[in-house]
């Protein structure tokens, strides 16, 4: 017998859900002969690629991991004492294994459907409470992208809230972290804000044009100042003040809130999150109660459910960009949920006493180092410090000698001002490490190094006004789970309350919840990836250099563009960066007056918000009766604004899930009038290998690596949003003030780290490596197949709102639900009832209110698609029972959904349907029941009684506040 040989373990077969037999069955249901026919009927011929993707051959999982181990091995793991907002730390193994490496945590979506996200919501409430306690302020959000962008959001908030007239200036201490100043300058310029950078000790705060100020605590060089008098003076002049602070230092230092700060921002990386060559790390933002209605980002708040039990939800969602659109003060979309959960759990596990001990040990060793170096004759300039010494050497030559000797010993310091050396200690520093540092200086100076030991006691030599007296982390949650057993059980208890991809398909349109393969995730926690400081010498990061260069080249091939920037650390950040590139291009040609951004009415809410942040004026383009861009309206507005046209922002396929046939004509029209085309890459999942942004005519596109390229959503973040550009825009890609990136006419930094969230880029690198060009193309084809299969099964029950010329949808579709209103059934009722079937709802009321947008992705099998369709069809029958009067309009299965285990097990049951109908509406649920943790949540109650910290709700029931706006709930 003759046997054939071929690869037995092909990754593309692991990534794509349907096998060959299932594909054949699905094609018959759709009514086509082949997958090729379906693609031809779906994707317009005019935009199809003429050749296959030119990417390296696909690797097996085993081959990829072996290759990547070699690449990562090129990174050199030095001991880093650079500081500047990034510090070595220790993520407790129990948290690493059970959260960071656990798909139950990293594959969940943003907690818009709060009833099946109570675990993450509690973890985020813990994080908010931690930030509130340590900063001494009254309210904190659930995280921002990083410290630099958090500072920029504070500046924007102050600018929008100041009562002073004609204010255009913002004071920034010269001792703020340099990368933060870089991000602030980038954000300020398009908005017409002037940064006044100087010494806070001599600053003139009487300038009537000033609206705010920013300080660093401890300062970038390690100095610790009491800012109380500065803040008092600023307030007297009508200025708001931001203090950027170090969370570890705040366990010993007086809090910014106690100094009078209006906002405290920073980076929670130090609480257990690896440096990861710059990210991802959760930025934090705390402020006074007076700003709670305008605080940027997401707030987790307490409310009650239908049974009167405490329940958590995302509060005040009317502030979010997808509702406010061009009126939004920010384009924030992605947060850093997974990272803020890690930092919050670090505080839960260690508690206030152990964290304070970490800080005490750090300061004790810093004092020990100062004494040893002073004994060698080295001058230390910081009068008061926490962890960082500012050393002054006698000459630049001596500084370079220290650098050579330190790097030879595997140590990285900060070198600045030609003769300065900065050394910042951290949680992992031991007495032996201090001894090694001292030896470097002793050798360079030709002196003998003395012995170094951890002192038994440490005396705080700071002024009494700087020493923290207030308590923090007093809530029981931070004082209970300090044994590993208790911590493990607590995290598992929270995980069990959340629905994730580990349970079932999450069919969110526009969000692409696809497989995050284990082989892609494994390298993320390797030391070679996590232990590098983003400002370490480039020669120590040759592995990262190879990853960046190859990933950029592959993304260029996929998009058809000439260059890519990996810096933007969210999709919304990518939008903003892309628009800044267009803005800089026009200015470079002497056409800085071009400021009109045409944006379709159906666009994602971040689009107009990003345009406003980039200093552009939004002009909305109408949609036609088919939901596509009204080309006549677009041409009229492009011609009307030709002299000042900057760009068009367009999503492709459209936000309605259709490949618009007119896209090439649309792009050509914009170019004819001197504008550029920005393509939102949210739907790139339907382009890869079949068409490309450049092939369509776009000039810029951001790519959601957390969607199309498999980085997990992490419960609402992290994300990565790199941008690709055509050749003449490449010189204007983002730069960085600390690390030379190399773009000739670079715009300023949009993120704190030069390559954004560098440590999760290996996930997308792995995905492309194991799929290859043919595999990526097949993934797109299967995504289109899966969507059209669902369409075929559901369209007789739920009309599909928009389709292409031949009746096909792209990778997603909008299901019409508005006509159910006649029977009193809202789209929210369907979303909540799906929880009883074990599913997360599709995207609710976006982009069309009262509808569901479904995207199955290529990763789901036919069996899973059928289970979801069966659930949707059964729910349609339940709706029909209401329509026909067989079920009460208000007292029915949908209105009471979701049904918790406590509801089902209650002694009394007075509902007009059975417990079995409520809990087990379809047979497969019996074998894999997911119980929602709470009943339907009362959103309005939570907004009237705004509680955003770990505080018993009973204390606040009578303290109702009046809503500023009616909460419209989640839109997607």
TrEMBL record:
Binding partners and assembly: The glycine cleavage system is composed of four proteins: P, T, L and H.
State what this protein does: The glycine cleavage system catalyzes the degradation of glycine. The P protein binds the alpha-amino group of glycine through its pyridoxal phosphate cofactor; CO(2) is released and the remaining methylamine moiety is then transferred to the lipoamide cofactor of the H protein.
Q: Which GO terms describe its biological process?
A: glycine decarboxylation via glycine cleavage system
The record's listing under NCBIfam families reads: gcvP, PRK04366.1
Q: Which residues carry this modification: N6-(pyridoxal phosphate)lysine?
A: 707
HAMAP family to which the protein is assigned, alphabetical: GcvP
Catalyzed reaction equations: N(6)-[(R)-lipoyl]-L-lysyl-[glycine-cleavage complex H protein] + glycine + H(+) = N(6)-[(R)-S(8)-aminomethyldihydrolipoyl]-L-lysyl-[glycine-cleavage complex H protein] + CO2
What name does this protein carry? Glycine dehydrogenase (decarboxylating)
> What's one Pfam family here?
GcvP2_C
GO cellular component terms, semicolon-separated: cytosol; glycine cleavage complex
Residue ranges occupied by any Glycine dehydrogenase C-terminal domain in the UniProt entry: 779-899
Enzyme superclass (EC): oxidoreductase
Q: Which cofactor does it need?
A: pyridoxal 5'-phosphate
Sequence similarity:
Belongs to the GcvP family.
Q: Which PANTHER family match?
A: GLYCINE DEHYDROGENASE (DECARBOXYLATING), MITOCHONDRIAL (PTHR11773:SF1), GLYCINE DEHYDROGENASE, DECARBOXYLATING (PTHR11773)
InterPro entries, from UniProt? GcvP, GDC-P_C, GDC-P_N, GDC_P, PyrdxlP-dep_Trfase, PyrdxlP-dep_Trfase_major, PyrdxlP-dep_Trfase_small
State the UniProt keywords alphabetically: Oxidoreductase, Pyridoxal phosphate
Q: Which GO terms describe its molecular function?
A: glycine binding; glycine dehydrogenase (decarboxylating) activity; pyridoxal phosphate binding
- Segments forming domain Glycine cleavage system P-protein N-terminal: 13-441, 476-738
- What superkingdom heads the lineage? Bacteria
- Decide whether keyword Cell division is in the record: no
Which E.C. number(s) belong to this protein? 1.4.4.2
């Amino acid at each position: 017998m003759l046997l054939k040989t071929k690869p037995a373990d092909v990754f593309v077969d692991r990534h794509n859900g349907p096998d060959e037999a299932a594909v054949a069955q699905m094609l018959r249901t759709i009514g086509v002969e082949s997958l090729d026919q379906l693609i031809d009927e779906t994707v317009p011929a005019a935009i199809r690629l003429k050749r296959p993707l030119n990417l390296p051959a696909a690797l097996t999982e085993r081959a990829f991991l072996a290759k990547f181990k070699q690449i990562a091995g090129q990174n050199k793991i030095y001991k880093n004492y650079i500081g500047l907002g990034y510090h070595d730390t220790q993520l407790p193994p129990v948290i690493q294994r059970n959260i960071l490496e656990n798909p139950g945590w990293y594959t969940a979506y943003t907690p818009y459907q709060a009833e099946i996200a109570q675990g993450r919501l509690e973890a985020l409430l813990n994080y908010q409470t931690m930030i509130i306690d340590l900063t001494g302020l009254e309210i904190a959000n659930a995280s921002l992208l990083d410290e630099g962008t958090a500072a920029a959001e504070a500046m924007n908030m102050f600018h929008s809230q100041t009562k002073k007239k004609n204010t255009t200036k913002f004071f920034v201490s010269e001792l703020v972290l340099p990368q933060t100043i870089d991000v602030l300058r980038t954000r300020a310029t398009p908005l017409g804000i002037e940064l006044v950078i100087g010494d806070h000790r001599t600053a003139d705060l009487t300038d009537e044009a000033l609206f705010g100020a920013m300080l660093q605590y401890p300062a970038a060089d390690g100095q610790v100042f009491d800012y109380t008098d500065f803040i008092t003076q600023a307030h007297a002049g009508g200025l708001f003040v931001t203090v950027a602070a170090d969370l570890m230092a705040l366990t010993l230092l007086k809090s910014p809130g106690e100094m009078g700060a209006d906002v405290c921002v920073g980076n929670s990386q130090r609480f257990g999150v690896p440096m990861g060559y710059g990210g991802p790390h959760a930025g934090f933002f705390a402020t006074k109660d007076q700003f709670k209605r305008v605080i940027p980002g997401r707030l987790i708040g307490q409310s009650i459910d239908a049974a009167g039990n405490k329940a958590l939800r995302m509060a005040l969602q009317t502030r979010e960009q997808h509702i406010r659109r061009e009126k939004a003060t920010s384009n924030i979309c992605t947060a850093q949920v997974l990272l803020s959960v890690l930092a919050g759990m670090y505080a839960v596990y260690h508690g206030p006493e152990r964290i304070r001990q970490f800080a005490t040990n750090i300061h004790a060793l810093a004092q020990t180092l100062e004494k040893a170096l002073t004994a060698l004759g080295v001058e230390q300039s910081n009068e008061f410090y926490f962890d960082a010494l500012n050393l002054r050497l006698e000459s630049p030559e001596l500084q370079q000698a220290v650098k050579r000797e330190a790097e030879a010993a595997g140590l990285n310091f900060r070198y600045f001002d030609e003769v300065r050396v900065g050394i910042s200690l951290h949680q992992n520093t031991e007495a032996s490490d201090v001894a090694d540092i001292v030896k470097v200086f002793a050798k360079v100076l030709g002196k003998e190094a003395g012995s170094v030991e951890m002192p038994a006691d440490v005396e705080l030599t700071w002024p009494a006004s700087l020493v923290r007296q207030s308590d923090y982390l007093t809530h029981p949650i931070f004082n209970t789970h300090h044994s590993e057993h208790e911590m493990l059980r607590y995290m598992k208890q929270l995980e069990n309350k959340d629905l994730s991809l580990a349970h079932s398909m999450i069919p969110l349109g526009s969000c692409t919840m696809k497989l995050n393969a284990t082989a892609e995730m494994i390298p993320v926690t390797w030391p070679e990836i996590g232990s590098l400081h983003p400002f370490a010498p480039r020669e120590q990061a040759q592995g990262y250099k190879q990853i960046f260069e190859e990933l950029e080249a592959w993304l260029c091939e996929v998009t058809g563009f000439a260059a890519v920037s990996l810096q933007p650390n969210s999709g919304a950040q990518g939008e903003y960066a892309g628009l800044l590139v267009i803005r800089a291009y026009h200015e470079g040609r002497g056409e800085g007056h071009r400021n009109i951004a045409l944006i379709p009415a159906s666009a994602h809410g971040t689009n107009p918000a990003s345009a406003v942040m980039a200093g552009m004026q939004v002009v909305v383009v109408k949609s036609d009766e088919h939901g596509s861009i009204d080309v006549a309206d677009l041409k009229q507005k492009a011609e009307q604004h030709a002299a000042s046209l900057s760009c068009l922002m367009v999503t492709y396929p459209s936000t309605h899930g259709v490949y618009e046939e007119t896209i090439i004509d649309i792009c050509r029209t914009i170019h004819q009038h001197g504008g550029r085309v920005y393509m939102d890459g949210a739907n790139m999942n339907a382009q890869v290998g079949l068409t490309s942004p450049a092939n369509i005519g776009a000039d810029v596109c951001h790519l959601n690596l957390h969607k199309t390229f498999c980085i997990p959503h992490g419960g609402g973040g992290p994300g990565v949003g790199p941008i690709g550009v055509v050749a003449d825009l490449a010189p204007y890609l983002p730069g960085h003030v600390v690390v030379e990136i190399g773009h000739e006419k670079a715009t300023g930094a949009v993120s704190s780290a030069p390559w954004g969230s560098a440590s999760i880029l290996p996930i997308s690198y792995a995905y492309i490596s194991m799929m290859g060009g043919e595999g990526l193309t097949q993934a797109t084809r299967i995504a289109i197949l899966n969507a059209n299969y669902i369409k075929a099964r559901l369209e007789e029950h739920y009309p599909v709102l928009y389709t292409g010329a031949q009746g096909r949808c792209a990778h997603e579709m909008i299901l019409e639900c508005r006509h159910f209103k006649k029977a009193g059934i809202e789209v929210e009722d369907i979303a909540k009832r799906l929880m009883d079937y074990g599913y997360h709802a599709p995207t609710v009321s976006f982009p069309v209110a009262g509808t569901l947008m479904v995207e199955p992705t290529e990763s789901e099998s036919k069996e899973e698609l059928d289970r979801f369709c069966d659930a949707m069809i059964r729910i349609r029958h339940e709706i029909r029972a209401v329509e026909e009067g067989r079920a009460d309009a208000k007292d029915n299965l949908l209105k009471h959904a979701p049904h918790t285990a406590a509801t089902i097990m209650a002694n009394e049951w007075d509902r007009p349907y059975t417990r079995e109908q409520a809990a087990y509406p379809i047979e497969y649920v019996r074998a894999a029941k997911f119980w929602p943790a709470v009943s339907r949540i009362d959103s309005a109650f939570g907004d009237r009684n705004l509680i955003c910290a770990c505080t018993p709700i009973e204390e606040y029931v009578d303290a109702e506040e009046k809503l500023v706006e009616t909460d419209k709930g989640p839109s997607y």
